[in-house]
Amino acid sequence: MLLPIIMVFFALMGCAEQAGGDEAMRLTEAADGTAIEVYQNGGFTVDLESNPTTGYMWAVVELDGGVVEEVGHEYHADPNPEMMTGTGGREEWVFRAVAPGTAQLVMHYRRHWEPDDPDGTFTLTVTVK
C-alpha cells in the first residue's frame, strides 16, 4: 500500500515542477513594452522577426547581467523552397534569471555598422523573484 502512495507522490512532484517552470515562456514582438515575472534560475525566450540578408539583426543594448543573463542566440531562416535571396526568418534569444531584482532588456534591430540608428526596438521589463 505504501509503494503506490510513494509513486503517486513522485509523479505529482514531477508534474508540478514541469507546470510551474518558466523554461517554456516564449515572447514575440507582441510582448514589446510589457513586463514579465520569472523565478530565479527560470528562463524565457525572445523570438523576433529578422532578415540578416539586409544587414539588420537584433542586438542586446541594455541588460543588467547580474539579474538576467543571455545564454543563447540563434537565427532560424524561414522555409525557402524557391531558394530566393533576401528571405528572412527569426532570431531566438534565450535568457536566464540569475538573481532577484528587476532588469530592463532593450534590444535594437540595426545594422552593426549603424549602431546609433536602429530600425526597431524591443523593450521588456523582467522582475526576478
Shape: globular
**Assembly type:** single chain
β content, as a range?
over 45%
Give the low-confidence spans. Answer: 1-20
Biggest sheet features: 4 strands, mixed
Spatial extent as radius of gyration: 19 Å
User: Helical proportion?
Assistant: 10-25%
Structural class: mainly beta
Number of separate helices: 1
The largest sheet has its strands arranged as: 1-3-6-5
How would you characterize this protein structure?
The protein contains one helix and eight strands, in the order αββββββββ. The protein has 129 residues and is mostly beta strands. 15% of the residues are buried.
Overview features:
129 residues; disordered N terminus; globular; mainly beta; 4-stranded mixed beta sheet
Task: Annotate the secondary structure layout.
Blueprint: H1 2-20, E1 26-27, E2 34-38, E3 43-50, E4 56-62, E5 68-77, E6 89-97, E7 101-111, E8 120-128
Parallel strand pairs: 1-3, 2-8
Antiparallel strand pairs: 3-6, 4-7, 5-6, 7-8
